[in-house]
Each structure stands twice: as structure tokens, then as C-alpha cells.
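tool_call: predict_structure(chain=1)
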Amino acid sequence: MDTPGSSAPAGGLRRPVLIVAALLILGAAGLAMLALLPGEEDAWTRIRRSGSVRIGHTAEAPYAWRTPDGRVTGEAPELARAVFAQLGIQHIEWVEVQFGSLIPQLRTGRFDVIAAGMYVTPARERQIAFSHPSYCTHAALLVRHADAQRLRGYADLVQSPGARLAVLAGAVEGEAALAAGVPAGRILAFPDPASAAQAVADGEAEALALSAPSVQWLADRDPRLRRAAEAVTAAPPEGCGAFGFRQEDRELRRRFDAQLSAFLGTPAHAALVRPFGFTPAELPPALQPAPERRP
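tool_result:
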């Protein structure tokens, strides 16, 4: 048996040539394999090839949460399931993170889509791309029963010395409260709605600002709490929620948007989101039914 470095008369000239050829073949094969790595494919090509998509969500009902039996549900996940099913993608890998981590982890590639009812804002649009909105709504306050008439909006919090406002870390309500004059020292950020609502119930904060559907969902499930008498802001809706994508994943977003647009506002869409408290009133303005004309 020849050992490395030995020189048999018949093979001594051929072996380097064979080795070089083998290395070239291996190198070419390696390059081909690298070209097929998921990181080298655009997201839609990889998703279509694998039949699987990774979706990031957070724990904020009624937009998205995980049930005790492990199913991820809510307005955004169920809508994402319906859209991807129309695209022929049946397998979804769900990734739960805190709200403030959704955009950073989308951008680093941990998942392909954000399905969390995230508001579209100029600051977020500088970091990621959004689908067409799936709903529009106002912010509202979650308070204890005794404060339901006293604390109706940001202005009441400003005028109530010592009143503390709970917000979700990374959510738009914190910025809105600051803009309305609520002192930064009285705004408390929490990682999830459940802990923020608990802080209000326990008296650690006087109110929690979140989107109206979230506030109503929390109020319906804790007898100590209720939605404040008025919305935080007046019409038009304070914000619209949508699905998030990496800016470079244009083909994935284009295909998703085409199916989403065809589905929004249909009877099937209404039936899908009704269990989560969404009605035609939460549809984006462009999809709102035209007012009936009186004779």
C-alpha cells in the first residue's frame, strides 16, 4: 500500500494529476453545494423548495399566542396559515419571541415573516417591509374599575400626578404617550401584555395602553380590570397592523400580498377572525363597506 509521499514508479507522475483533478471536482461540488444553501437562496425559492416557512410571533392575544395544547393561534397566525396554504405551503415553524425582538430577529434570519399584528410605522418601515394591512384600530387604556371614568386617555394621565402607564416594550403606545406629554419616568415597559395587565391589577401601574382589541381581550378575562370609558385617540384609526418581511425578500412579500389582498374582506376572512374579536369595523379603510345611500 502506498503511503502519503511515497513514489511508486508507475503512479508517481499520475498521482499529483489525479489529486489535483479530484480537488477540482470536490471544489466544484462544494461550490455547487454552497449555492444550494438556504442562506444563498432568496426566501421564496427556499420556502417553495422546502415546503416550509418560519414565522415569528409574540404572546399578545388576540393577535397571536400559543394555547395550552401548543397551537399558535390568533388573528395574525390564522391569517398567515390561510395565505400560505393558498401558496401551497403547509408546514410552518413557529418561533415565539418578545415583541421588541421581532424585528431584530427577522433581520438576522431567524424567521421569514412576522405575524404579530404589528403596527406599520415610518421607523419600522426603515428596517423591514410590510404587507398590506390586515386591520386598523385605535389604542385604548386598560384600567381598574375605579379608574375607568377618571383615566380615559393620555391627557388624563398627564394631569394625574403620579399616575403610571404600563406599555409593551417596543410598542408604539410608549412613543405616543411621550408625545402626549406623559413623563418618561411614569412610563413602565413590560415584555408582554400579561405581565403589564397584572401590574395594573396589582396597583403597580394605573393603566396599560395597547391596541383596543388587546385591551378588550384582557378586560374580558380579568374581572378586576376594564377598558377605559373612551379610546386613547379619536378617528381616524391610530394605526394599522400588517405582516413583516425582510426588505430584500421582495418576491416572498409580493406573492404573500397577492393572496392576502384577495382574501381580506371576504366572508371566509370574516369567519376566520371573528373569534378573536375582529369585525368589519377593523378592516383597513380601503376595504370598508361603502355607506348605504339614503333615498
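agent: The CA atoms of residues 27 and 260 lie 43 Å apart. Proceeding to next step.
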